Structures are given as C-alpha cells and as structure tokens.
Amino acid sequence: MAGVALAGSALPAITILKPNKVYAGTNADTLKVGLIGCGGRGSGAANQALKADPNVVLHAMGDIFPDKLQSSLENLTKVHGSKVKVDDGHKFIGFDAYKKVLESGVDVVLLATPPHFRPEHLTAAINAGKHVFCEKPVAVDAPGVRKVLDAAKLAKQKNLSLMSGFCWRYHEPKRASFGRILDGAVGDISAIYNTYDTGTLWSFPRVQGWTDAQYVLRNWTYYTWLAGDHIVEQAVHSIDMMSWAMGGKLPISATGTGGRQVRTEELFGNIFDHFAVTYEYENGVKGFHHSRQQANCENSYLVETIGTKGRAMVNCARNVHEIYGQNPWKYEGKQNDMYQTEHDELFASIRKGTPLNDGEFMAQSTLLAIMGRMAAYTGKRVTWEEAMNSTEKLGPQSSADFSFDMKPPIVEVAKPGITAFS
C-alpha cells in the first residue's frame, strides 16, 4: 500500500487509560516509539502513531539511507513539533540500525523496511520485549513466514501487542461487510473473486556513485528476493480479504500463471507484471485472484464473494460495500481512516494491558500470496503443505550479510513449466 501524506485525517482523540503496569522496560507514562525504515509508509506509520496517543514521542529512527531518515525526520517534525524527540544520538544508519533502535530505550517499534528484512527485524523486536507495528507483507519466502509465526507465539507469551499492516482489517466498512459474510448473509460460499490491477509503480533513476546494491535497494519493489513480487508486496491485500471472507480457512492448493508482457526492461528487475491464480479449498470453494501492474489498462481492486443466498461486493477503488440477493444490505456508516485506526487501537491496547496479536493471520495471508507466486512461477499445482514447508530462501539471510559493496543476487525471471519448485 502506498504511503500516505503526513497531514492525514484528524480523528477524535481516543480515551487514554492511566497505565497500571510497566511498559516494555520503562516506568514512565510516555511511550517512546522507534521507526525502522523511514520511507513513505514508515513515515506515514510514524505520523499515525504520534496522533494515536497524547503521550507518545518519536524517540529513535533507523534506515540504511541517511537522506531517507533526514527527510522523514524533517517532515514529521513539521507536523508534530515537540513530539519528535530524535536527537543526533538516536539517528541510526546502516544494516544494523534496527538493533540500535531496539537498544535505544523505545517501547514500540514500527517495522517498515522492505519485506525481505521483516522476519529478522520482527524476531529481534519481540525478543527485545517491544510492542510492534509490522507492515505487510511479513516475509518473502516460507522460511521467513515460519520465523514470523514463531515470533507471534512469543509475543503472546510476553503479552506484547503485534499489529499488522493489513490495513483493511481496520476499515469500518469492511469490518461490517466481512462480518455479515461470516454471519451467513450470502449463504454458503462457492467462489471468491479478487483483484489488484494497477498501473506501474515508482522507481529511482541511477545516480552517479551508487553501487549496484544501492541501486537495487532503492528500487527494491522490482526484485523478488526483496519484495516477494507484486502479488506478495501489493496484491496480498486482496488475498488477505479473500482469506477474511473464508474465516481464515486455508486452501488445499493453488494453480496459476503469470509473466512479463510489457514491463520487460532491466529497470523492472525480475518480477512479473501480471498474475492469475486459482485457490482451491477442501469444500470445493474456489478463490480466483488476478493482479496486474501494467500502464494504460483497466484498473480493479475488489473482492466479490458469491454464495448460495447472494453475493457481496467489496470494491476498494470505488468504496462500494454492498450485499445483493436474499439479504440485501448496503454500508452507510462512518468512513474511517484505516491507517489511523490501526494505531489508535494499537496504542489503546498497550495502555489497557490487553495486547492485540495479528501474527497468525498476517503470516498466513503472506504465505497465501507466496503460494500463489510459487504456483505462477512454476506452472505447477502447489499445496498448502508444500508452500508452508518450502525450503526456498530468497536472498542473503542476515542483515550482517549486506553491504553497499555486495553483489546483489542475480535472479532470472521465472518461466512457468521450467522454473522448479523448492
């Protein structure tokens, strides 16, 4: 999901309960926030965190690029003034910056680096006893998903809040829509059609002096080992809503296809520009997913759930939330800022001492998208068990293996029917 403007929409202040416990290593009322990954989405998350609670400050920031950190800091300071308390000793640069943020005395961390780093950063944050906002997707491969599931279990044991960046889960119209679907408004589900068809994304032209690693890391969305491909990095939102409609029930298999038709230049790394995947569930339900990043084409961003009593339309692009058939209904309630609601509920849960934990569904939805990518890349039927137990590891496995002088992995574009499953 693209980053949002710092100005954002102002929501009414939430009621803050006086703390009755020590928060993650501090006995003060003030909650200190650390931002790890200072791009657009990370800056947006920091903005929402600072608006979510009157006694929250931004205490530390970390990124691999100094210009990203400085730009984020300046913009956040313009909006939030004295709530931004990041002195020179709490600006951390480098691939180990996340460790320094975690050691800086923060209570809550916002994880918004490229997805490749998420399992490592999340594991370290939970081990350090921090509450976490964790952007989606949470991994790019199955070993990473398994690490995230372990971290989520540990977060529960430690009574830590773990919130995902699957923002539609915090959108009131969608909560109402999927709530009705799960209550049987469309009857027994037979099929779910979901799309995420958009134009092309941003890119940064190469600047003289950049190494190969710097160029790739600044354009990370175009490399499967960093982003997971766009079915995982972007379209996972639609796949997550499909899973939501299914009540979290897992499919038994996926088959699919995809490729590069128009976005074939070196600029676009090794990712596809379109996917089409069919998920099959044990009871015969089919989930049909289509995603595309191609310019000058029809866009679509929706989830349509078809059942024995009707169908439900959730259209993200057009803000339509309606059920047709035996139980007609149309959402006419409030329209909330889902990004802000995420953080309002996160910080309220910390204050109340009633931790939220999105860990299981955020990991499963990420793996659903990875499973779809596996099916499309290989052209083979991939079962849920095969996807979950896959040993394929994308890219270097530790931040310690990264440097700007490294040679980024050279990965060929997948070829269905030729690329092997692992």
Automatic annotation (TrEMBL):
Ranges for domain Gfo/Idh/MocA-like oxidoreductase N-terminal: 31-156
User: The GFO/IDH/MocA-like oxidoreductase domain covers which part of the protein?
Assistant: 184-312
Give start-end ranges for the coiled-coil region(s): none
- Matching InterPro entries: Gfo/Idh/MocA-like_OxRdtase_N (IPR000683), Gfo/Idh/MocA_oxidrdct_glycsds (IPR050463), GFO_IDH_MocA-like_dom (IPR055170), NAD(P)-bd_dom_sf (IPR036291)
Known Gene3D superfamilies for this protein?
Dihydrodipicolinate Reductase, domain 2, NAD(P)-binding Rossmann-like Domain
Please identify the protein, giving its name as recorded: Gfo/Idh/MocA family oxidoreductase
